[in-house]
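Reopening: Nucleosome assembly protein 1-like 1 still failing for me.
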Amino acid sequence: MADIDNKDQAEMDPADMEDVEEVEEEETGEDENSKARQLTVQMMQNPQILAALQERLDGLNGSPSGYMESLPKVVKRRVNALKNLQVKCAHIEAKFYEEVHELERKYAALYQPLFDKRSDIVKAAYEPTDEECEWKADEEEELTDEMKEKAKLEEEKKDEEKEDPKGIPEFWLTVFKNVDLLSDMLQEHDEPILKHLQDIKVKFSDPGQPMSFTLEFHFEPNDFFTNTMLTKTYKMRSEPDENDPFSFDGPEIMSCTGCTIDWTKGKNVTLKTIKKKQKHKGRGTVRTVTKTVPNDSFFNFFTPPEVPENGELDEDSEAILAADFEIGHFIRERIVPRAVLYFTGEAIEDDDDDYDEEGEEADDEEGEEEADEENDPDYDPKV
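Support: Ran it again with your exact input. Result attached.
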């Protein structure tokens, strides 16, 4: 609807103004639902609004209606019976997860021969046959026989020009570098060491033992440490807390233990040496002091913070352990079973597909912000 300037408004009588207002209401009423949806979308894309909503929802979740308090004693007594039933449900659920763990152990034994063969191929202990290497890639489906033969000859020519590599070089290092969760842990000085990583295995606790799993990192002989295997064990609990049985939501990792790395002298990448100059307050003389301090490294993964007997941790240790548990679970659940797909990047593409729509929305937001900045007369790109 065209804007009406002040002059026109002054010339109109009250009846005309009322008519105009009514028309405006009718026209804007047609788009009311659309504008409401747009407003909702904008609100949902604002982190501050979302945080405020979440805080409000959390408050609502923890705010009983008061109905329970108004019930007669005889009804409250029956509600207590329901809560006792719920506790029994939690214990049955714990048994369910224990049996799931037993199934994981059973099927781990079935997977292991395949994982062992994978390891043999990676470290050049076994050369797969032509039949085992036959794979029909998606892009090859529409290729003619002539094009396939030409591509094969070109591939063979490339292979002749290069040295004959053994196995699949840098397999696990590439897997780590392809996964954000793991690549964030890697430092440049870690990479030469991880080139010697030949396999990662998952071992489950024996029947009758407390629930746990161990990640085994198998290395070929190298110049950095004498260990042929580094381990990380995660202890889990699958039983309701006696003090809070209703919080049970399946097995949870309670603690983890690493191992001692027998570093070759001068090769420990988890430590670094720094030199500091110190000035004597009285004499004014300066001396250089050499100190050994912790250094960022993937191999700090094998020395997690210890959980005290009382279970209380400072915020930093708690955050480190939370991230550690997430990484251990991810390696066990995703990396080991699907390593080749993380090596090729296919598993990462599958993971990214879940976020495509959200990513497009983020791009649109960014574009809108850039456009707003360009239209802002006070905008200074140098700031």
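The first strand starts at residue 197 and ends at 204. If you still see a failure, please send the error message rather than a screenshot.
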